[in-house]
Write a structure and sequence with these properties.
By secondary structure, this protein is α+β, with helices and mostly antiparallel strands. The protein starts with 6 loop residues before the first strand and ends with a helix. It contains 4 helices and 9 strands; from the N terminus they run βαβαβββββαββα.
Length: 156
């Protein structure tokens, strides 16, 4: 998605792909203050510890760290404050219904600029067991080894 025109990646959550099976993803807007957007333009954001919560029919991201803008003085907000996600009502209802099922959760995947707007990709995910993680690592190793062999054979 980073190759699309007008999209600039700010933060990525690679750990989500390691810990969860991604079932479905959604694009949401973020409700931010002005100094937070300026800080995001400098790439000062982390979503490694962030999680999504649904309260009273509204979706929030919590513990998403946006560094305070250095020239923002009194207008800077708390770096770990709760931020509202902007989704359609039918998407929120879908998330609420699926998260009530056992094993499903909502995780942030990446934060990016789409043209001039800050967007976040969130995903409906199902947790992986330890043996699933081991199987994924083994598959990646086999794929890497096969690509290496293919590359060596083609060079000769």
């Amino acid at each position: 998605m980073a190759k699309d025109k007008g999209i600039k990646l700010i933060a990525n959550n690679k750990k989500a792909f390691h810990d969860y099976f991604i079932v479905e993803s959604f694009e949401a807007g973020l409700s931010l203050a002005g100094t937070e957007v300026k800080s995001l333009r400098l790439g000062q954001c982390s979503i490694k510890e962030a999680y999504i919560s649904i309260e009273n029919g509204e979706v929030y991201i919590q513990k998403m760290h946006i560094n305070p803008y250095e020239k923002g003085n009194i207008f800077n907000k708390d770096p770990l404050r709760k931020r509202k996600l902007l989704l359609h009502k039918h998407e929120i209802n879908k998330l609420i219904g699926r998260t009530k099922e056992k094993g499903y959760t909502v995780v942030p995947i990446k934060v990016y600029f789409k043209d001039s707007l800050v967007k976040i990709e969130i995903a409906l995910a199902k947790g992986k067991k330890l043996y699933d993680k081991r199987q994924d690592i083994a598959n990646k190793d086999m794929k890497r080894e096969a690509e290496r062999d293919f590359k060596v054979r083609n060079l000769k």
